[in-house]
Amino acid sequence: MPPQPPEKPIPTTTTPRSQRPYQIYGVWYYPIPSAQGYKEDGIASWYGDDFHGKPTSSGETYDMYAMTAAHKTLPLGTHVKVTNKSNGESVILRINDRGPFVSARIIDLSYTAAHKLGMLQPGTIPVKVEAVQVAEQTQLAGKTVWKREAVPNFRFGNFSIQLGAFQQVSNAYKLRGLLQQQFEKISIQQPSSQTSERYYRVQVGQYFDLQKAQQDASRLKLNGYPGAFVVAMDETKS
């Protein structure tokens, strides 16, 4: 049998570029830090020769004949099991791109994956998507062993909790003033020069463990900040 994975993820002190929030068609997406335990039911679509040979979000070249897929928020490199709920067929795919940016669709499959699932004709199908580990046989000191690839996990890093976003900087400073008695660390993140949106984001706290940040965000939601959520901070920011 393959060796059991470690009980704790390996710590990381940086935020990979693929894990940073991004904006498509005016909507912000926040990649989740861990694929551990991920399961989701929804609608799958597929993309083919219109994108074949073009770069993906991971930097790889899209190959419509490879077993890959696009997902809006799973860590790039995650392997998923996709099951066609209409016929029970399943495939194992690697997430290497972002998308699909169409309402109600949760995953975009390569041409070959779509063919194996029997979805080329209908175009979309109901699916179950589950994060999985994959293992392959390799030779070590003359013996055959199993090498298991870990489920991507960015639990350890640099996190904060966002409590508000304002187009007027005066409103951001007003909220910061209200929070000064409750939090030792409060920051106002300036609008990104890479987008047309001009929001000043008020964030509190500094966490190196996602689980602790999520616990505090849940507490804040029950105490007057229903929109509180955890953000992964860029390692170049203080």
Report on this structure.
Helices cover 13% and strands 37% of the residues. It is mainly beta. The strands form 4 sheets. Strands 3-7-4-6-5-8 form a 6-stranded mixed beta barrel. The longest helix is centred in the last third of the chain and has 12 residues, at 210-221.
Blueprint (SSEs and pairs):
Blueprint: E1 22-24, E2 27-29, E3 39-46, E4 68-70, E5 79-84, E6 90-97, E7 105-109, H1 111-117, E8 125-132, E9 134-140, E10 143-149, E11 156-166, H2 169-179, E12 186-189, E13 200-209, H3 210-221, E14 229-232
Parallel strand pairs: 3-7, 4-6
Antiparallel strand pairs: 1-2, 3-8, 4-7, 5-6, 5-8, 9-10, 11-13, 11-14, 12-13
Helix content: 10-25%
Question: Globular, elongated, flat, extended or rod-shaped: what is the shape?
Answer: elongated
Number of helical stretches of at least 4 residues:
3
- In the CATH hierarchy, the architecture of the largest domain is Beta Barrel
CATH class of the largest domain: Mainly Beta
Number of domains: 2
